[in-house]
Amino acid sequence: MILEKAGFEVFLAEDGEKGYNLAQNLPDLILLDIMLPKMNGIILLKKLKEENLTKNIPVMVLTNLGQEEIIKAAFDSGASGYFLKVSLNPNELVKKINLFLENPNFKMDPKTLVFD
Amino acid sequence: MFHKTLYRQLIKIFGSEDKIPKDLYPLFQAISDTYLHADEDRVLTVRSLEISSRELENLNTQLQSEGERIEKEVEERTQELSTERNKQSIILSGIVDSVIAVDLQKKIILFNKAAENLTGYQTAQVIGKPIDEVIKLFDNATPISSETFCPSQTNSFEGIIYNKQGLKILGLNQKQAYVDLLTGQIKEGSVSNLGCILTLHDVSKEMQLEEMKLDFVSMAAHELRTPLTSIKSYLYIFLRDYAKSMDAMQNSILSRINIATQRLVSLVENLLNVSRIEKGTLTLSLLLFDWVKNIDEEIAEIIDQANDKKITLEFIKPQSSINVLADKFRINEVLSNLLENAVAYTSPGGKITVWLERKGNEVITHIQDTGEGIPKNALPNLFTKFFRVSGILEQGSKGTGLGLYIAKSVVQLHKGKIWVNSEFGKGSTFSFSLPCTKS
To answer: B205 Cβ partners below 8 Å, 6+ apart?
Structure first.
């Protein structure tokens, strides 16, 4: 809703498997939750980064899980960014999205993240 | 008249032709006929021998060239097979998944590089061994027999005969991993002594993530953050898009909801911090940065709040920068907590002053207010959990009572100290030290 208002074309997947299928359409950016039915976000991320077709699509992890191990797993699996949903207001989210769209190769430094 | 051989014989016997008895002519004619037939037969035989011999020669030539052609083909095929085998070998050794093939007796006939890595065995060690002796598979804790995951060939079945995910595999010296297993069979298996082909996909890392018992507090935080995100986001959008079309009362109501939501969000984060502090698992990500500039930025965040309450907020800024090695995020939580407290406990018209003091290789930050001050009896417990100056049961206390406890823990993790000087009714000065680099 917010994203469409901001002018983005948005495709929504309710579970990891659907997310994998949608990714085959080569979006410019993927916003990835971790707690997903059927296939969790980390496994999906690994899969996308292993395949030639999808490995260059930047992925922003958007979750409310803040454990260090999970953050590490996300970056190790190829995430470009990691954000706590609860900390971002819609305006900030749009700003971050634009940042990643303008710089597809940008990667956040995991060390700047401090969560749980 | 008569066959020449018979004629010669008759002349020998009777002397001349006219002496041959004429009544014996029929008999001699019959005999002559048989000689003729014999001649014909002989000619035929010779002729057919001649033909056969020619045919045989042709056949031989054909066979020879056929033979040569076949030899060439066999050579080419052998070369192809060899190349194919080499290609397969390279492919198998290069693919990430483990491939194990067994014969009809379930003995291992193929074991690629990935299988070596997965199980800890070398290929040479396992070729010819029964698969039971080499790997053990478990579905959760239940062992799976080789007859289940690698069944005996049944009547030209071709395809996937077993497919299970998330199995535990034990290899050499109980080397453990998790795999998705796919077992296939081909219908030529029974004639080529090929039992099954097992493909094992290593999912150990993924399983670890699944098995990770997300601790209660982290899960509770996640569960709390999830609805909070919704409330916060939708409220934000609503206020952004509809504030203008609402009256003052409506806006005020929503504003209060917003503030309360913010408080909840902070509370969740604070509870999480406290839990980590208690467990000793709070970690710092240290960065070198200019402390002076940092205070400037933090004050900029809170200046509006102070102005709204008509409180003067001043930072006595030193001339030079001071570099500290600290966890920027966490130490700023401390700084903003202290600044917010100062604003909260200072009445309109009051003043908050921030200044720095260098002492050896430490920088001390002082935050002084002209607020309510703290009663003497409250001072010893000020930095403890859930402590409120006004007493636990009394309404109106601001905050959760966690801020100072967390502030103390964070400052101590930085090898600093935190303390307060206060006089009830006059104001308080909260101070904390941080190690800094020599200027």
So the answer is: A46, A73
Residue listed under structure tokens 């190690």: B435
Which CATH number is A100's domain given?
Answer: 3.40.50.2300
CA closest to B264 among chain A residues: A86
Whole-angstrom CA distances from B189 to A8, B21, B81, B126 are 55, 88, 18, 21
A86, A108, A112, A113: best to mutate for the B interface, most B CBs within 10 A: A86
Q: Using alpha carbons only, how large is chain B's radius of gyration in Å? A: 52
**Number of domains present in the structure of chain A:** 1
Q: What is the pLDDT of residues B35-53, one digit of tens each?
A: 888 778 787 777 878 877 8
Query: Residue B265 in 3-state DSSP?
Result: helix
The span from the first CA to the last CA of chain B, in angstroms, equals 149
Task: Print the domain residue range for A68.
Answer: 2-112
Question: pLDDT digits over A68-99, tens only?
Answer: 788 888 998 999 999 988 888 888 889 999 99
Contact B163, B118 (CB under 8 A): no
Q: What is the ipTM of this complex?
A: 0.73
Strand order in the sheet with B196-202: B108-111, B98-102, B196-202, B176-185, B159-170, B136-139, B142-144
Å between B219 CA and nearest CA of chain A: 8
